[in-house]
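Researcher: Can you fold this with adenosine-5'-triphosphate in place?
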Amino acid sequence: MHSPIPPSPSPTLRQLTAMLWKKLGKGRVLFGASVILSLGETVVMLLVPLLMEIYFNRLELGQLPYIYNMMLISTVIVIVLLGLTILGFYYKQKSMSALQRDVSLELADEAQRLPLQKATASHSADLAQRIWADGDKSSWILSTLFHGIGSQAIMLVLAAIYMLWLQWEIALGLFVLMPLGILGSHLLRRKLGVIGLAVADQEAAVRQCQQDALQGMETLRAFGAEGWMMDRFVVERHKLNGLYMQRMWWNELVNGLTVSLSLLITWGSVLAVAWLAVQGKLQIGALMAFFVLVWRIYNPLVNIGRMWGEVQQNLGQTARISALWRAKKEPNNFSPTLNHAADSLSGIEQQHSIRWSNVSFGYDEHAGIQNDQANDVNASKSEANRLLLQQFSLELRPGSFTAIVGPSGSGKSTAAKLGAGLLLPDEGEVSICGSNPNYNAEYARQFVAYVPQSPYLFAGTIRDNLLFGKPDASEAELVDAAKAAAAHAFIEALPNGYDTPLKEHGSSLSGGQKQRLAIARAMLSGRPIWIFDEATSALDTDTERFVMESVRERTLMHGSTLLVIAHRLTTVQDADAIIVMENGLIAEQGTHELLLQRPEGLYRKLWNKN
Ligand SMILES: Nc1ncnc2c1ncn2[C@@H]1O[C@H](COP(=O)(O)OP(=O)(O)OP(=O)(O)O)[C@@H](O)[C@H]1O
């Protein structure tokens, strides 16, 4: 799914309408039909004054049979029209829910394609708010414009035309004064847009707070910090209430202005009509029709003013979805020649290997989604970023076992994530099996099985969680991978074995069990490069040894390349090469034995402390 990028952080109403209209796709016919059918109600509303006029005029003339027929026919017409309106309402809901579904799916896809750094720098609750709530509200602009404002405007125009027929001088005056009805909301549109955006931002902040409180419940309780969290929640909720009050006051101002101006217009016409009636220039039927019509003018004027205000507020909120649309996405240039470079390389040394060539990388402090130009697809990282890795160069030999060790914060995980195509270098180049993630990150990543220290387990059964690495794996392959990861025994001991459903984030499992499932998943995926980032840190020494031996056995059997990051140095002492990192640089490298021979070496110090 690829969307046209909105041209500005806050798209204009015209741009947004055009975009949503395009997104309706085939639903346009349904939507158009719903608008037309919904007019049935408008026509019924206008039939009332017409029928009243005929009724009173015929009553004055004593034509009772005519009145009976008229009432019968009009009842049938009203029933049919109301039936059509219900059909229109159904079509409206159908087309709008399809539009909302498509917009939210597209926004979810946009979020999926954000560079990992940007996605993780934004709170997941904020992204969820943009995808669901903000997306929904923006989609409703189309319905408010066509069904709401559109049908009210048609009622207004038809009522005015009817008036024109009854008394053209007054109707003309009304035509001229009508735009005053939306004057309030139009003059305050910028303020309404700003408040709409502020409310949506704050709703996201409250949601973030709530999500943190729920997900961090264990930690909060352990520290007795429920009150601390509640205070934060109260502050954010308080702010939101303040904004709701502000919004309410601005809405009231808009309503006040709209109602006063509309009343002024209608009262003016009532006085004029009364004057004409006193002069004997209007029949009684026309006079009655006029009094009903006046409300058919007043109500649409007030409704249009109110809805125009709503549109302005929602329009302000679209800056939040526009920010997601505009945010830079992961590169995904597909070119068979470039992407399949690995397949065509003749030298075995290029296959199943990762190469970091003069890679520089720094985390962007402002990587998160922002509702302004900073998200632009062309915006570069902020100048002030401190580079964590500078001119980092390393090559993993195909089929080799390499380890990265070093003090905490030295950049081990960052280097590994760059090698896995999860992060993209600011400068230099990463090559994964001959593919450049800066060219097509998704393609390059498919060669790597990356296992983090805290693996994510999804809602579903254990089987689902293992199979997503290789959906078509056989039962034998599944069990084989689980056995190799020392997971089979504990899975079998669960009430439903492989079909045991997991609680949220696998919270019913121990840290070590989760790690073993993640390793089994990686083994099953059969990818040529394996990166274990502290992937066995929660295992006891014996289990870790067993798992590492079976991992090594499998990598050797398939010629796969293995990169392991570990703090427990015994885990990696058999590695073909150990890279020791310090402050983002490679301090030393060699085999375990070689590195231990350096009296002042960092590895030796780390080993002695181990
Ligand atoms: N997403 C992030 N955004 C900003 N800074 C980050 C991010 N991830 C890591 N860092 C910073 O980058 C530096 C290196 O982190 P990294 O995780 O690569 O170190 P490490 O050597 O793997 O540490 P450890 O052994 O503790 O896991 C740290 O100072 C850390 O604060």
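Model: Folded with adenosine-5'-triphosphate in place. The chain is about 60% helix and 10% strand.
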